[in-house]
Write a structure and sequence with these properties.
Order of helices and strands: EEEHEEEEEHHEHEHEHEHEHEHEHE
Largest sheet: 7 strands, mixed
Distance between the termini: 25 Å
Bound molecules: NADP nicotinamide-adenine-dinucleotide phosphate
Helix content: 25-40%
CATH architecture of the largest domain: Alpha-Beta Complex
Radius of gyration: 19 Å
CATH class of the largest domain: Alpha Beta
Shape: globular
Strand content: 25-35%
Number of helices: 10
CATH superfamily of the largest domain: Medium-chain alcohol dehydrogenases, catalytic domain
Number of domains: 2
Length: about 325
């Protein structure tokens, strides 16, 4: 065991934001085929605060836990057998998900092939905002719905981390994009490629737009958004239900209407991250970072995230 230690945000008991404490812990060492990455920035996702509170992926973790799945940093050391990365390489990833990855820390280790080259045009903070949200949007639109040009795609919670990337990926795939968000976000969402915007606080979305081929549902059962989405999906269309899987209410309504449904749990995929980096570097996709926090203020970042009003992403700056 290395004598070296590192700063990390740990959870010793599941609970509120105060459960996050900054500690010195042992620095991990890469096994064969793994890399040790010095983390410059760590993205924050709703699954982080859900898990911290004992929900989300808590059942798959052991305490004490270092939270965090999104990292951008620099390869410090490579384990035996690694041939595609070398010390000094700038990489980003969502390693290990849903197993613990320990992203809120100065170092992580993970299989080298879960990492992709960081988009060259982005800072580490911007790159760390991407992996989990971008892979979710990509796996929903590209791998699950197989969206093609001319299709109509409705994105719920379009202003959030996953949503603002889903709008851009759907547009890039040639779709007509309808986005739900509060009105102050509409001009920005149109810049990102939304063709129609709906303020869900003023209008029921199912009364504000015509039939769509695909619904990317980032809300789920709240306000009955999932089952209500059946009303806008064409027969044979698809609702990808992302937050909590396919609820009984959604399954029943969709079954009656001949609408398909799918749950989705994001998976590590370095090849997709490479494709996403190319899109970002080409200028076709951009990432919005609403605010950054130093690692020591992870609890403050969670408090803000849990208000459910984030435009784009929140990111922890780890490197000092
Ligand atoms: N299954 C998976 O693998 C997976 C992966 C990623 C995320 N998720 C889940 O998907 C959800 C979204 O994740 P995220 O990272 O995008 O969250 P986020 O960034 O925290 O989402 C915040 C956004 O949600 C919008 N919003 C809140 N309520 C809304 C509503 N009723 N209708 C439309 N927009 C609403 C807010 O916009 P306004 O202020 O404009 O309302 C805000 O911009 C979370 O529940 C997350 O846990 C699941």
């Amino acid at each position: 065991m290395s004598e070296q230690t590192m700063r990390a945000v740990t959870v010793k008991e599941f609970g509120g934001p105060e459960a996050l404490t900054v500690d010195r812990v042992a620095r991990p060492e890469p096994l064969p085929t793994e890399v040790l990455v010095r983390v410059h920035a760590a993205g924050i996702n709703p699954v982080d605060w859900k898990t911290r509170a004992g929900h989300g992926m808590a059942g798959l973790q052991t305490l004490p836990l270092i939270l965090g799945w999104d990292v951008s940093g620099v390869v410090e050391e490579v384990g035996f057998g690694v041939t595609t990365l070398a010390p000094g390489d700038e990489v980003y990833a969502m390693p290990w998900f849903p197993r613990p990855a320990g992203g809120y820390a100065e170092f992580v280790t993970a299989p080298s092939r879960q990492f992709a080259r960081k988009p060259a045009s982005l800072s580490h903070v911007e790159a760390a905002a991407l992996p989990l949200a971008a892979l979710t949007a990509w796996q929903a639109l590209v791998d699950t719905a197989r969206v093609t040009g001319g299709q109509r795609v409705l994105v719920h919670a379009a202003a959030g981390g996953v949503g603002h990337l889903a709008v851009q990926f759907a547009k890039h795939l040639g779709a007509e994009v309808i986005a739900t968000a509060r009105e102050p976000r509409h001009a920005w969402l149109k810049e990102l490629g939304a063709d129609e915007t709906i303020d869900y606080t003023r209008q029921r979305f199912e009364e504000a737009t015509g039939q769509v081929d695909v619904v990317i549902d980032l809300i789920g059962a709240a306000d009955g958004t999932d089952a209500r989405s059946v009303a806008v999906a064409r027969p044979g269309g698809l609702i990808v239900s992302i937050p909590g899987g396919v609820s009984d209410a959604l399954a029943a309504a969709a079954g009656q209407a001949g609408v398909r449904t799918s749950p989705l749990l994001v998976e590590p995929d370095a090849a997709a991250l490479t494709a996403i980096a190319d899109l970002v570097d080409s200028g076709a996709v951009r990432v919005e970072v609403e605010r950054t926090f130093p690692l020591e203020q992870a609890a403050e970042a969670h408090r803000l995230g849990e208000t459910n009003r984030t435009r784009g992403k929140l990111v922890l700056e780890v490197a000092q």
